[in-house]
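Exercise 7 asks you to align residues with tokens for two separate proteins.
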Amino acid sequence: MFISSSPLKQIKTPIAEHLLRFEKHFKGSMKSHVPLLDKITYYIVKSKGKQVRPMFVFLSAKIWGDINDSTYNAASLIELLHTATLVHDDVVDDSNERRGFLSINAVWKNKIAVLVGDYLLSRGLLLALDNDEFDILKIVSNAVKEMSEGELLQIEKARKLDIEESIYFDIIRQKTASLISSSCGAGAASVTDDKAIIDQMKTFGEKIGIAFQIKDDLFDYGSSAIGKPRGIDIKEKKMTLPLIYALSQSDNAERKHIIKSIKKHSTKPKVIKEVIQFVKYKGGMEYAEGIMHDYKNEAMQLLSEFPDNESRNSMRQLVNYVIERKK
């Protein structure tokens, strides 16, 4: 999840000092006596993103209470498990780049990358257990389970290209929204035992995560600098919302033609261009944008029910930015 640095300063205002302290906490949580591991984890820290998930953790906590040691543990656990899944994803996808840097598997090969991912997972588990953060561990572990299930469901459906809209939402809820949901839930759980509040924050995060993923899917059909190549979802035979809707608006012959083209020639530029034009002609972009804004508006309605404070205002700005981003 990428955010340009310019609007971040204002968004971070209520939690800026906590994020600086968190960086040290996160680095410390990855320390090892094995020099190779330390070298790789240093590389990971150097190439990290904009700390959006920790921002969700800290803002969620500060909306409902005072940030404490449990909040730092929650943010570190989220980042450790998230980073582990990214390292493993790059192996699965045979990806050579991550956030403008060479991926771990590109530099140190697949075997080491898998072991590093396993190490990060174990460090996250131990961080939670050593500090008796059982409720937070349960929230985050459930997200990792769902992320794996969502990825496997997407792979299964890519083989058949028979995905329906309800299945698409199952996939993105598990693959993307579950981690943002757990970030908000874990942040709240670090400052309150009130299950209703924690569940409310998880629901809020899930809606943001779904809207965020739809935005990401829309980029595949755009023409601006979008942070990933145009048509990559088509090449990988991923059925996203704009395409699913476009197919639902087609007759049987047209639908069969598009699906056959993707199944057999998804990497050909001519086919990618045809599919993109097809989606735009059928109104797939407008439909997906409408659904995205519905989820965002539902999240904002929930947010309006939270305590009115500076952190809630920053959360609103963060939500607006990640949904309205240009790349």
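Second protein for Exercise 7:
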Amino acid sequence: MSQISQVRSSQAQSSQALSRDDLARAFAAIALEAGAAIMQVYAKGCEARMKDDRSPVTEADEIAEAIILERLAALVPDVPVVAEECAAKGILPDVGSRFILVDPLDGTKEFLNRNGEFTVNIALIENGKPVVGCVFAPAVDTLYAGGDTAWRVQHGVESEISTRDYPAEGLTALCSRSHPDPKSEAFLANYAIADRREAGSSLKFCRVAEGAADVYPRFGPTMEWDVAAGHAVLAAAGGKVLMPDGAPFLYGKTDSGFKNVAFVAWGQGEPAAS
């Protein structure tokens, strides 16, 4: 049975009756459908256009976002949705304490470079915190989701995930493949780092969530829809996302157009500096 058929039935339930885990499974069904559409474009190839912010957009981004918005409108019609491509066109809803963030194709550069490390991201925000999230990497058939618990579905096999205790020999740090960040390297110099690894898109949060790494700092520019779903999965797996000074990292920054400040994703909270 496909991942889509396994979780699609969740969408038929009343959103008011859904637990956080049920809602994560409903998000997963939507992400799987959008991911299938992305892979059709991936197979035939496409050209990128540059948006006003000089970031690339493709046919796959737009098709995936249309699918996600339609499905979310049926699933949670009263919850406003902030989606990347709509936002790029100036289409932004009024948001309150509860809203959804969507990145239909996180890692467009990875998509264009055909390295497989691109994802579909959907997250529910409540009172500034991501409480439900789904990250689907269609090219590698791996899905991460989190609500009250966190899990991974890889090649049809589902397993619970959690962050790991920090290794005595030092932390494994994740770095962005497409966006090298000297400030992040300077931050990591304060800690005992045993290994550094690269990963694309929001998969960096998921690597920490599943215990494959311990810390992911990001001082370069990001948008809320880039990171909210991965943050939700990580939080459900026992991790934290904090500002560099240790303050909570929150969402709903409407005054800045949903632009993020620097953050650090930790598997077990901030350790003592070395």
